[in-house]
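Can you make up a protein sequence with its backbone structure tokens?

===
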Amino acid sequence: QVQLGESGGGLVQAGGSLRLSCAASGRTFSTYYMGWFRQAPGKEREFVAAISRSSGNTYYADSVKGRFTISRDNAKNTVYLQMNSLKPDDTAVYYCAASIAIMTSTMMSRASGYRYWGQGTQVTVSS
């Protein structure tokens, strides 16, 4: 069983930055594939970013590419999402997700590929 807990959300003006953190339980964090997803009111949950076990591969949604950066610190069992140049359209509840199963790059961008989810953290970007 993997437990995830997000933090770092809040209210920020357009153009600002936030860094989300997701702490994971377990002694084998380095073997987890990790992803960030978001869900805005009235919309489906959508992929934001993902990172492979070794941090060698990262993947981003086109809407955040060049503005967001996903990273992980395996010594701290934590994955981060640095969000810069935030826009009102980025307003959503952000969820981190983990998979202990081997994932292809395609699977890493799909919510169905992840078994474990955090409770989410609200990000609100004002115009």
Remarks:
- The CA atoms of residues 19 and 82 lie 4 Å apart.
